[in-house]
Amino acid sequence: MKTRIYLVRHGETLWNAGGKFQGHTDVPLSDNGRQQAKELSEHMQGHKIDAFYSSDLSRAKETAEIIAVPHGLTVNYVPELREINFGLWEGLTYKEITDSFGEISRLWWSSPLTTEIPSGENLQAVVERCNKAMGEIVSRHAGETVVIAVHGGVIRVIVGSILGMDLNHFWKLRLDNVSLTILEYHGPEKGILELYNDTCHLRKPLI
């Protein structure tokens, strides 16, 4: 039986708006991010959803909770679906990272799978924990439809894994706040990408 997965990137935060790396730092949704989540909730309220999941970080939790309201369902929180741990880079912009961590940042952008961020993690660790969590969710919900609110890096890893990408290039997949990505699974390891990075539900289009 197939399992349909709606992957949702969390709504915007003030750090998103400021171009800052968030990672495991628990930054809440901004007012704009909450409005984005409400617009997606309205868009999805007519869909039959069997379960809701999110990472345990507040920006993903709140996004999932807002979308879940019309369905009367609670959200299951999965710490393994957290964003990449950016360690000492959290709270910094791309320019600040390259200025302060030149060589290691260059290594990470070319080989993130094996390059560990200072006080953080490498991408391979993210791949392993996220794909394990996804496999468990898909197995648990055979024949059902599930919404999972998570993070940009997590969705890129999941989609890239399904497509058989070299995940050292995962950052080439654009992923907007509160975008919708749809996957169809025929078992935990047989996924098909149906829709990617859709934001047509937003009244104020992203630029």
From TrEMBL:
Translocase among keywords: no
Principal EC category: hydrolase
Active-site residues, Swiss-Prot/TrEMBL: H10, E83
InterPro entries: 6Pfruct_kin, His_Pase_superF_clade-1, His_PPase_superfam, PG/BPGM_mutase_AS, PGM_Phosphatase, Ribazole_CobC
An example Gene Ontology CC term for this record: cytoplasm
Ligand binding (substrate): R9, H10, G11, E12, T13, L14, W15, N16, R59
GO molecular function: alpha-ribazole phosphatase activity; ATP binding
Record keywords: Glycolysis, Isomerase
GO biological process: cobalamin biosynthetic process; fructose 2,6-bisphosphate metabolic process
Keyword presence, NAD: no
A Pfam family assignment: His_Phos_1
Chain coiled-coil ranges: none
Enzyme Commission no: 3.1.3.73
NCBIfam families for the chain: ribazole_cobC
Name under which the protein is recorded: Alpha-ribazole phosphatase
